Known about the structure:
TIM Barrel, eight-stranded parallel β-barrel, 48% helix
Amino acid sequence: MTPLAVREVWPHNKVLKGIPASPGIVIGPAYVLGERNKVRITHNYLDSRDEVEVEIHRFRDAVAHTRKEIADIKHSITDEFQEHAYILDTHLLILQDKLLYDETIRLIQEEHINAEWALKEAVKKAQALFNRIADPYIKSRIQDVGDVSERVLRRLTGGSPLNLRNLAEPVIIVAVDLSPVDTTQMSTDQVKGFITETGGKTSHTAIMAQSMEIPAVVALEKATLEIDNGDTLILDGLNGTVVINPDANMLDIYRQRKKKFEDFKHDVGKCSFLPAITLDEHQTQVLANIEFQEEVGLALDYGADGIGLYRTEFLYLRQQQLPTEEELFEDYKTVAGMMAPRRVTIRTLDIGGDKFASHLEYAPGINPAMGLRAIRFCLKEHSIFRTQLRAILRASLYGQVRLMFPLISGMQEVVAARRILEEIKGELHREGHGFDPAMPVGLMIEVPSAVMLADLLAREADFFSIGTNDLIQYALAIDRGNKYVASMYQPLHPAVLRMIKQVVDGGHAAGISVAVCGEMAGDPLYTPILLGLGVDELSMNALAIPVVKRIVRHASMEEAQEFARQALQHGSVEEVNAYVTGVMAKRFPEVFIFGRELASAAA
Length: 603
């Protein structure tokens, strides 16, 4: 049931709408933190050099105490939070990053302002920098900067840190924001769900909620003003709906919805660890996309057949210095070992343009999405590229590792990247480092030029992976982050389907497999059509794996191929959408009950 339908049938029910961050439905009393978890500060001008030195000392002391506070929390967190300890390490690194630490001291010295106000201004500058980023995952990292600064401000103003360990009863937390540090101190027996006014699906707090299966809704503006302590709440983490003090009829509806979802989740969960084999015994691989090594546990918990996309930007963005070869090697080695004997596909650095770190100060350009990024960036910055390739090759000795180059637009990039890879193999051999000399090398197909050259590129690749997120945007000239044209982002556009088919045909003609690793792969509505187009592997957010496997196991390859053939006959996106949704609503009605909501919450 949508919020609109709720208002139409029971207009006296107060309904709020946010972003679903962790799937699930929970009913319970609100525990509102409100402005109590935000620090109030004032602006003071410093008259003398002595006052400036005092403020710098206060700031450094507050940072030191905050570091100790976070380190102590890290050492005391319970087993259920251990896989998220790396987030606390990230917060410790942020405390010494120049965007926060050095800039605050500079502002105190040059602007003659108190430490609290200087820190606030440093955070605002960092936010302005991150707001230029289009990528939602990278963009959401500014929330970590805000979380850390809030703890320092609390120390500077004499406030006490938030403590959610000793709640009197099971509650739904309502807050302006919750930091990952706060979240690690929650009792999962007492916190049944949470709502925040800020954040997004890719925030660390949201990722932690997903792994702990705590329903969550984020970016719900003015939640702390609309909700009072003790209000009965319905929190729907599937579609981002929150109902305040629902009437008896609404409670009954959502209790039934909650039970149906739990039954659905239990049902699809049975497929998690079964092979993705169609009714006529065609097997595909259902894989997980991950951002960092700690997500491997989540991938395994949801039955991933392997890692289809390991995005490697995190290690470059979490600290001030470039990661060393040893740091990268240890990370990739750990992931490969944890997944063994399952396959791990590591994508080389896709940074530059709209993604950057504080130490990589390159101009974003007028149109960063089409600027110096991904393989273009790596071929320009040879030192960074070579360090990563050395680490990946060395890690290939510890599991089934594959390497993948992103944003390939033509043959010259493949030839240049492979030449560097072969040079590094020679270096490692001479140095006595072991590696898999036959490590598969794949290409990401994300731009129309690569689609048109698929048959030629396939001769230089061991596999293809179609990045539908970028491919759809480039093919249709649509920026889905632009609210004026976002509705034109259509995965079922006839041009997109034909492009996928052309890449599959080009890959198969050369004897290589073809995967899809964009969000399209994790939406069960598209599963049969992708199978019918000949896609061999589907890689997605781990939470979507059980639903997609269930669809695969209840379909036949023969019907999927006919489904795709019919879809390709339609000339407009409206016709394709009507055809696909009509067939799927009859053939797989469960997709429209919870499957697509679950996929959307996981995307």
